[in-house]
Amino acid sequence: MSDLLPPDSTMGAVDSFMRRYGRVLIVLVLLIAVWGVASRVVGRKELARDTERAAIPAVLTAHGKVSDGGEDLVLPGNVQAFYEAPIYARTSGYLKFWKTDIGTPVKKGDLLAEIDSPEIDQQYAQAQADMATAAANFQLAKSTNERWQVLLATESVSKQDADQKASDAAAKKAALQSAAANLARLHELESFKRVVAPFDGVVTKRNTDIGALINAGQSAGNALFEVADTHRLRIYVSVPEAYALSIKTDMVADLTFTERPGKRYPATVTSTAQALDATSRTLQVELQIDNLEGELLPGSYASVHFNLMATTGTLRVPVNALVFRSDGMSVATVDKTHHVVLKSIAPGRDFGKEIEVRSGITAADEFVLNPPDSLLDGMEVRILPPPPAKAANKEHP
Question: pTM of the predicted model, to two decimals?
Answer without folding.
Answer: 0.61
